[in-house]
Each structure stands twice: as C-alpha cells, then as structure tokens.
Amino acid sequence: MAILFLTPSVNSAARWADGLRKEFEDEDIRINSGPEGDADVEFAVVWKPPPGRLAALPNLKVIFSIGAGVDHVFADPDLPKDVPIVRLINETLTTQMTEYVVMNVLWHHREMDDYAILAAAETWRHLHPPRTPDRRVGIMGLGVLGSAAGDALARFGFSLAAWTREPRDWPLGEVFSGPEGLAPFLGRTDILVCQLPLTPETTGILNARSFAALPQGAVLINAARGGHLVESDLLEALKTGRLKGATLDVFADEPLAPGHPFWSCPKVRVTPHIASLTYPDAAARTIARNIARFRAGEPLIGLVDSAREY
Amino acid sequence: MAILFLTPSVNSAARWADGLRKEFEDEDIRINSGPEGDADVEFAVVWKPPPGRLAALPNLKVIFSIGAGVDHVFADPDLPKDVPIVRLINETLTTQMTEYVVMNVLWHHREMDDYAILAAAETWRHLHPPRTPDRRVGIMGLGVLGSAAGDALARFGFSLAAWTREPRDWPLGEVFSGPEGLAPFLGRTDILVCQLPLTPETTGILNARSFAALPQGAVLINAARGGHLVESDLLEALKTGRLKGATLDVFADEPLAPGHPFWSCPKVRVTPHIASLTYPDAAARTIARNIARFRAGEPLIGLVDSAREY
What we know:
The structure is a homodimer. By secondary structure, chain A is α/β, with parallel strands linked by helices. Chain A is about 35% helix and about 20% strand. In chain A, strand 4 (about 60-65), helix 2 and strand 5 form a beta-alpha-beta unit.
C-alpha cells in the first residue's frame, strides 16, 4: 500500500516528504506522483489537490486534509463520492489560532493601531478604551478553533457571544444561531472574529448586510477563509466608517496579489494565511494515528459530513 | 478628618474628585488644596506629589499611591519617615497589565512587525517562528503584576523563566535571582518583559551589559518604569542588531518629548504609559477598603517596605 501527498506547493512538498517519511517508516510515501502506479494508493494527504486527481485513485480509502478546513477538497468537481474525508485537528493548529485570535482581539481592544498613529505624529495622548467586561467580542463558529479562542478570550473577561449553525449551549456567553440569529448577534458585537468553516451556507457571509448590522466602528478579524468575505463590501464599509478596521489572514485569491487594495488600505492589516500553519511533523503524527485507527476499525477523528461539506 | 488628593494632572484631578466623592460620601475630600487648613488631613492619595507637600501635613496617617509603583512618592526628598505608604493593588490594574504583556509578547512571538514590513512591500511570505514551547520568555519581577503575566503566558505554552531579588519557588519556570542570576537569566531569554518595581537596586538595570547578555535578536518589553532603562544603551543595542525590537510604555521623562529618538525609531513601539491605567472608580474603592481596614486596626494591603522603597 502507499500514501500519496498532493499539493501545488513545491516548498511545502519537500517539508512534508520528510515529515511523512519519519512517521511512516515502513510505508511507500509518494509526493505528487502518478497517475501511473496509483493502484496501491490507499491514503491521500492533500492541500488543494488537482481537480480529478483523487478520482483517478482506484483503491483510495481515506482523504486527509492537511488544514483544519476541507473547502479546498470540495472544490474538486470530480471528488469521489464515497471516500471518507478527514480534516486536520491537532493541538498545534488550535494553539496557533488561539494565539492569533487573542493577540488581534487584544490589539483592537487596546486600540494599538490608534496609538501607532499617535506615535507617528509623536503625540502622547491617553485613549480610554472600555474595560474587557464592556467590550463585546463575537465569535462566528464554535468548532474546535472557535471554542478554543472563546476559552482563551473568556479568561480576559471579555463579554462574549457566538453565532452557530444550530442552537447549542455554551457556558461562556449567549449563542445566537441560524440565519435569524445573525443580525442580533452582529448588533451586540464590537470585535467580530470569523472562525467558520467555508461551506455553501457560509460563503460570502461577511457582506454589506452583515456589516450594516454591526455597531458603528466595529472591527473584523477573519482567520477562517477568504470565501467568507465579500472583499468589495469590506472596503466600502471601511470607507464609510461603519467598520473601523480589519485584520485579515485569508483571501479569495491567495497569495494576495500585489496591487490588491487590501495591501495599501491603512485600516486593513494583512497577514499571509499564517494564523495557523500546519507543521508537517505534528500533522504527520496526527494522520498516522488516524490511519492506525482506520485500520483497527475505529472511527476517524475529524471525519467530515459530506452533505454539509464540513 | 479629611482626604487630600495630590496630582500635577488637572484632567486626572477632576476624574478623581468624582471617584473619591462617590466612595467617601461623608468625608471631606480635597483636591490639590492647602497648605492652609491641613491639620485635619489624615489620608493622602497621590501621584507625583509636590516635593515637601506631604511633610507639611501634621496629622497624616497613610499615604496611598494611585499607581502600582511608589517610586514617584520616594522621589520626594522630604517624604515623612514614619507614615506608612501603600501602593495600589487592584484587579483592574492587574488585568490591564496582563492584557498588555500577553498582547505584546504574542506580537513579537508571531513576528507581526515583520509581517507589517512585508505587507508594506505587498509581499506574501511565510515566516516560520518557533512554537511557544521553543520561545523563551523571561519576566523580571514576580510581584502581583509579574506573576499574573506569567500565569497568562504559561497558558500559551511559552518556555518561562523569571528573575527576582531573592530566590523563590515558582511552578511555571526556573527562577534566577540576585545580581549573579541576572546574566544566566538573560542568556536564555528571547522576549524580555520588565515588571520590576523601580528601586535604587533596579534603577538602570536595562543597560548595555544586560543587553549584551541577551541572545542576539532578543526583544524588550518595558511596562514597568522608565528609570529601569538606560535609553541610549537601548538605541545602541537596536542599532547593532543585538536587540531586534522594543515595546516601551514608560520613559525617563513623561510625556515623551516630541523629537525623542524613540518616536521615530522603526524598531521601537511607543505607548504613552497606558499598559495599566488607574480607573478612579475602581481605585477609590480599593483605597476606601484599605482606609476601613486601617481604622479597624487591620493590616493595610499593599504596605510598602520603606527600606526597600517597595
């Protein structure tokens, strides 16, 4: 049997080859190989697999995403229908995302960009942000990542709420759910953090209508997927002052092209999809454990519901 | 009896008058008054009191600092010798400082200033910072503020150590102590956080010799007092690259004057002594509780050791 790693990134492929080979000493690890000799490939480990490539593996048993999201897998129109798809859940992904969210929520909360503007003018002036119990942070999505971010933010005393697909209990704040819960959720949110999976239901959810429901001067942190955001709507909302600022880690087209207005908009902080980087060594360990579970007939961790595409 | 509030800041005086009067409805609250009619002043609440002013209060029972530090009180050469001095310990001060330290440690850890430079050049590139267990954060001072910062940083998994005046146990990392512990502590510290009180022993402790003991490319976060830092030594260490950057909230002379080189140095982030702002309402409550303790013959919370000036 063999494990096939598929990615468009040459740099990443080299680092993954090392990570996988260390974890699977006795297995045949192939990187971007085939389609000849594909008959013995049982497991595919993928990031943005070439469309049609997975369908050409006759004995594929499981598809492993190397990211927390699987939208890049469902983007393949020829995706095999009956092969289980697994997203990556590992502590390293989660802790990095928590760092990113806490850091950026605190940055906006403490008005650090305003202090940077004052400092550029060599001006010493105190701003008076509210204390955390009076700062309303709203998290979209309470999956592994959204929940972890919520736990960490709660320790700072923020006033938390969340928006989820279906109603649920959450000890840390009010949960709004479904399409009818969206506007009330946004209406009480000063700092909006998107941690949703990208599915047909959530595509374009960060749009002009959502921004209009936020309080004047709210800020957006999108560390989920570029597809959640209607980019032109955000630029307009920043222009009118409806939104005060945005921190964006993900974009409709990545890498973000030189000349894209986000790069030069002073109200937008761009990071290059680094909120949570997959470390090949840690991820290969997680995948190895999951393959062992599969072979032992145990349930896979992170198994995706194909109907929901998450 | 009367309570006298002394501060050079007119803005702050107005906000304090409200806070104190709300808390002490039946007491005579005076703001920057006297020296006539001082005989009934029992308690002084102070920020940078005018030298000699406290000595002119014949029946003074306690001096309350409205900051966590008391160096601004000891700066008075005529400070009465036998009047207890109390520094402010309250949750609002502590939580704000924890926010500031965590935010800035994460900012340096995740190399956000480097990403800002890349973004200004419209360049999409991944940096590969170590994970938190491989990032060594060193805290100088394990008082109320340093301990709280340590607790919060430990939750992110950083490799922690601390430097203190005297040896002590600390469950979160190694503790180095005394003059002989300083160089080894600095030698294992990538991100240095100063949370020391300013005393004769700690004045100027952030100097060229200390910077030389840090690993190449370390960063400094000073949220303690400007007097801890030899400013010209920091500028030199940034110039040579010994230090990669610094986040400074406090300065030898505040407000930091226009034209001071820190404002325009791209490796220095200046904030205007806002890491932990005293909120008059919360602080007045803390002081009121302490006055009640004093009248009941109970020990004061935050009582300063005059020999150590902290």
